[in-house]
Amino acid sequence: MDVAEKMESALADILPVYGCTPEFGANDEPEKYAVYNITEFPREYAEGEDNSTQYLCRLAVFTPALDFALYKAVKAAMRAAGFGYSSGGQVGTDTLFPYVTHYYLDFVGVEDNG
What is the domain range of residue 88? Predict the structure, then answer.
């Protein structure tokens, strides 16, 4: 299972998660959803090879209002899937497109390349 599949699996019972910005039809937008992006960094580079890969996974959570119970559930699910929580914060409010509250949560994961 790759890192994206791990994230999606960990969060499947909490809220819809998308790997790219979804295009919703009229009245199809879920009340709460998340969009992620993943950045990778080689780690433990030796003898011409990176022996592990570190992933920075940013989860952008969209909700009608701040929802700290939801953020706590997301953090717990991601920790259970082997990710470490590194930071989070509010990006925007419902006065900016997509007219909902935007909160980000950053997680770090490491995979052995061996």
Answer: 3-112
**What would the two tokens of residue 84 be?**
């470490």
Count how many domains the chain has.
Answer: 1
How many whole angstroms from its chain centre is CA 41? 17
Q: What is the dihedral of CA 65, 71, 77, 80, to 10 degrees?
A: 180
Lookup: tokens for 47? 């003898």
Tokens of 44: 């433990």
What confidence tens digit (pLDDT) does each residue in 73-100 have? 999 999 999 999 999 999 876 665 667 8
Report the C-alpha gap between 60 and 34 in whole angstroms: 5
Say what the pTM is. 0.86
